[in-house]
């Protein structure tokens, strides 16, 4: 029968699988069909909340943070009604907090994360879920410029993860290590940052040397080398490796756009301006297609404009810099 909860579950699973393949249009189609059907069958249900949450994650991945916030708030409201003590409400609190952090509402994000942490510690203080919430709290502290608190939260998360996964095969360990590396980089401790980020990459590689997680770890290392500026050749090698993985598995994705922008920056600094312009245009094309009107599109316009001015294409550069301001407005 076409109108059953089993069908909505299948549509949700198909959407998730499409996302793993990088086919975000198919993901949206499946999830939207599933949510519409579930709303007709049981609008106030845990399954409806899960579909709203997955649609919120999709919107966030595309850079539409306003839509993502709306969907995650709807999901949280449902979880609070139908499963106030379940695991799903913890994920919902963390997801909404992450969106609010990106939108600059740090106070509300902090309140949600504290609610999540209380629920986690009441049930299982040394769980991987608790570690995940601690990472979010570390991210919040980092956004506020409190690097000491951020580091403490990341270290606590890492200690829990290493205790529960002595073989270091839990992917969350890679996230904690990367987060500690980012804190070190913000402090200007680039050698320490490189150690953490290399270790994060090694953990990711255990799950598959050509996974998207590996590509993201390579990008972080490439960006670190770009920021440091002492070995731009190594930065370019890392970013090209990351891009090659994404071009195989998720060529039309926002992370791919970020890597292209990074390659544009590196090749520009290495004096290869025509090549840099190509990278920046490809990055802008993806941002405009996947997340029009987002801060990511504004950033792509900004870097393209700067590079055009460096390439003595002043008119084009000014036009794109103005467009970047218009997008942010």
Question: Can you offer a commentary on this structure?
Answer:
This protein has helices at residues 5-20, 24-41, 46-61, 65-82, 87-102, 106-123, 128-143, 147-164, 171-186, 190-206, 212-228, 232-249, 254-269, 273-290, 295-310, 314-328. The protein is an all-alpha fold. Helix 3 runs parallel beside helix 5 (87-102) and helix 9 packs antiparallel against helix 10. The relative contact order is 0.06. The mean pLDDT is 92.
Distance between the termini: 48 Å
Unreliable runs: none
Outline the biggest β-sheet.
none
Proportion of beta-strand residues: under 5%
Count of alpha/pi helices:
16
- Along the chain, the helix and strand elements come as HHHHHHHHHHHHHHHH
Helix percent reads over 70%
Question: How would you classify the helix and strand content by structural class?
Answer: mainly alpha
> What overall geometry do the principal axes of the alpha carbons give?
globular
Number of strands: 0
C-alpha-based Rg, rounded? 21 Å
Secondary structure topology:
Layout: H1 5-20, H2 24-41, H3 46-61, H4 65-82, H5 87-102, H6 106-123, H7 128-143, H8 147-164, H9 171-186, H10 190-206, H11 212-228, H12 232-249, H13 254-269, H14 273-290, H15 295-310, H16 314-328
Helix pairs in contact: 1-2, 2-3, 3-4, 3-5, 4-5, 5-6, 5-7, 6-7, 7-8, 7-9, 8-9, 9-10, 10-11, 11-12, 11-13, 12-13, 13-14, 13-15, 14-15, 15-16
């Amino acid at each position: 029968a076409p109108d059953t909860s089993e069908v909505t579950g299948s549509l949700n699973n198909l959407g998730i699988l499409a996302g793993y393949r990088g086919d975000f249009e198919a993901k949206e189609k499946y999830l939207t069909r599933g949510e519409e059907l579930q709303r007709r069958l049981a609008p106030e249900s845990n399954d409806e909340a899960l579909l709203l949450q997955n649609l919120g994650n999709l919107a966030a991945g595309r850079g539409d943070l306003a839509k993502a916030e709306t969907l995650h708030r709807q999901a949280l409201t449902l979880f609070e009604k139908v499963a106030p003590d379940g695991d799903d409400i913890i994920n919902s609190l963390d997801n909404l907090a992450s969106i609010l952090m990106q939108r600059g509402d740090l106070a509300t994000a902090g309140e949600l994360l504290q609610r999540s942490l209380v629920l986690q510690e009441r049930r299982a203080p040394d769980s991987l879920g608790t570690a995940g919430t601690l990472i979010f709290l570390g991210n919040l502290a980092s956004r506020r410029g409190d690097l000491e608190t951020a580091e403490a939260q990341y270290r606590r998360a890492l200690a829990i993860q290493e205790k529960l996964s002595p073989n270091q095969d839990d992917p969350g360990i890679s996230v904690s290590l990367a987060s500690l590396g980012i804190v070190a980089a913000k402090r200007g401790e680039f050698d320490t940052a490189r150690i953490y980020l290399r270790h994060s990459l090694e953990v990711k590689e255990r799950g598959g040397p050509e996974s998207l997680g590996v590509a993201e770890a390579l990008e972080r290392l490439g960006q670190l080398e770009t920021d440091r500026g002492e070995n731009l050749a190594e930065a370019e090698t890392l970013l090209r490796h990351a891009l090659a993985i994404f071009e195989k598995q998720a060529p039309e994705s926002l992370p791919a756009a970020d890597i292209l922008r990074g390659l544009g920056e590196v090749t520009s600094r290495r004096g290869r301006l025509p090549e840099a312009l190509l990278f920046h245009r490809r990055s802008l094309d993806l941002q405009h297609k996947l997340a029009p009107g987002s801060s990511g599109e504004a950033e792509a316009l900004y870097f393209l404009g700067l590079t055009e001015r460096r390439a003595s294409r002043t008119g084009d550069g000014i036009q794109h810099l103005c467009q970047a301001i218009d997008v942010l407005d």
